[in-house]
Write a structure and sequence with these properties.
Layout (H helix, E strand, L loop, with lengths): L5 E6 L1 E5 L3 E5 L12 E9 L7 E6 L2 E9 L2 E5 L4 E4 L4 E5 L4 E7 L7 E9 L10 E5 L6 E4 L2 E7 L1 E2 L2 E2 L10 E7 L5 E4 L5 E8 L1 E4 L2 E4 L2 E5 L4 E6 L4 E7 L7 E3 L2 E3 L2 H12 L8
């Protein structure tokens, strides 16, 4: 099996988003606007009781994956969907043809609301599909132990174990991995998929390079990821099928052409999104 190597390392850039939310952004910032099929990766932090959060905002043409590390957020949308995502829970939301939703903290759950949100592109054929949610509670996310690491499989299939989020266009793999020792580990991946790691805590080493917290590591093609690191270091391993289509984006809208973006803005301004009034 061919090992993947480091193609590029991107340290997170800290900025504000929503209302008084601190985000640490890697994908979606200058130098890495797109990593086909991924559009954005934010690690977000906010304090409940401060008015901070993500009030009503629209999306069209892509999907979001929200994964909570601590605290809880409540999501609502303009067509009546609602729910709470708590520590260890995940939600894959397909915005598709259009959705207007909010993501706000739940008081009393934690001193800090802390999580990650990944934006994932949709193929042109799926951009105008009906909005959809795929929820995964922490209790339904399988945990497997391998030589040198423990992995929670949130989306996709890994060595015969299926995560609760599946039936997604890009055939993603989304795993939360913790090293159980300090030796080298080998993790098989799809050879042709885009693969990246994001270090949550601790540090990992690939190609003799130390990679610390809030580093995003884009890897070359190959059939496995080989790495080592400090015991209890924690990172995401994310993979997905490339779409290989043009990307036109304007804020919360991601389409294939400028004309489609203009049509989307017109739809939003004229209240044609589902539930808009």
């Amino acid at each position: 099996m061919t090992a993947r190597h480091i193609q590029m390392v991107y340290p997170a850039e800290t900025m504000s988003e929503g209302v008084r939310v601190t985000v640490h952004r890697t994908i979606g910032k200058r130098g890495l606007m797109n990593l086909d099929p991924f559009l954005l990766l934010d690690e977000f932090e906010l304090k409940p009781g401060t008015g901070a959060g993500f009030p009503e905002h629209p999306h069209r043409g892509f999907e979001t994956m929200t994964y909570m590390l601590s605290g809880a957020i409540k999501h609502t949308d303009t067509v009546g969907n609602t729910g709470v995502i708590r520590p260890g829970d995940a939600q894959w939301m397909t915005a598709g043809s259009g959705i207007i939703h909010s993501e706000m903290p739940v008081a009393g759950e934690s001193d800090i609301i802390h999580g990650l949100q990944l934006w994932v592109n949709l193929p042109a054929a799926d951009k105008m599909k009906a909005p959809q949610y795929r929820d995964a509670s922490a209790t339904n996310i399988p945990l497997i132990e391998k030589d040198g690491y423990i992995a929670q499989i949130i989306a996709g299939e890994f060595e015969g174990t299926q995560g609760p989020i599946n039936d997604v266009a890009i055939n993603p793999l989304y795993m939360d991995i913790t090293l159980s020792g300090d030796g080298e580990v080998s993790i098989p991946v799809e050879a042709e998929h885009t693969v990246f790691l994001y270090v949550i805590t601790g540090a990992v080493k690939i190609d003799s390079q130390n990679l610390e917290q809030r580093s995003l590591i884009v890897l070359t093609d190959g059939e496995k990821v080989q790495l080592s690191g400090d015991k209890n270091s924690r990172f995401l391993l994310v993979a997905g099928r490339k779409i290989n289509e043009p990307v036109a984006r304007y804020g919360p809208f991601v389409m294939n052409t400028r004309e489609e973006i203009l049509a989307t803005i017109d739809d939003f301004n004229n209240k044609r999104f589902p539930g808009q009034s």
